[in-house]
């Protein structure tokens, strides 16, 4: 008499398991996003970081791209990202599987998020609940899209500026085309940084 009921239980739990797995893969639910004030703060801060790079890149003279030009494009973005993290108690990163600076290689979780942007071209941002270095919190990821103005430094391998070829021997961040996924902004927001929002 025992085995039929065990079997029935197994059969009954199959759809539940399927629903359970599907749930974790689908779009984020409200329980996976932080309180509204925090969510807006993160999303707006990263949107303006992204706008900053796009407007800086649009001003460069592509015929003379050198270290000084770089100082006006991706360098200030990295600086602003670090400053933002320090101000708010977040970890603000720019990560890419095809990185230029090896410090921007994604961790395992960021790699999975990056993969979601590869497989879902319509996805622009994503929140997950996670634990990082023993701290509970949220992680936000936003797509970084290649613009024509990025190609002066992230276009064909042979056309990269001399300073890039020299300073980044491990460079993988070339060969992109307009509209490609360049990488992601990844922000870890520990619960300890959101105290005021509750
Ligand atoms: C003037 C050259 C130049 C232009 C133009 C440029 N970049 Fe970069 N980019 C660089 C360099 C150099 C780095 C490495 C920065 C570092 O050492 O942290 C970099 C790094 C990055 C990174 C960090 C991840 C990594 O690969 O290290 C991202 C993301 C990025 N660029 C995206 C863009 C986008 C998007 C555009 C266009 C809107 C753009 N870049 C335009 C030179 C440039």
TrEMBL record:
It comes from the Bacteria. Residues 37-190 form the Tll0287-like domain. Residues 1-27 form the signal peptide. It holds the Pfam family Tll0287-like. The keyword Signal applies. Keywords: Signal. InterPro entries: Tll0287-like_dom. This is Tll0287-like domain-containing protein.
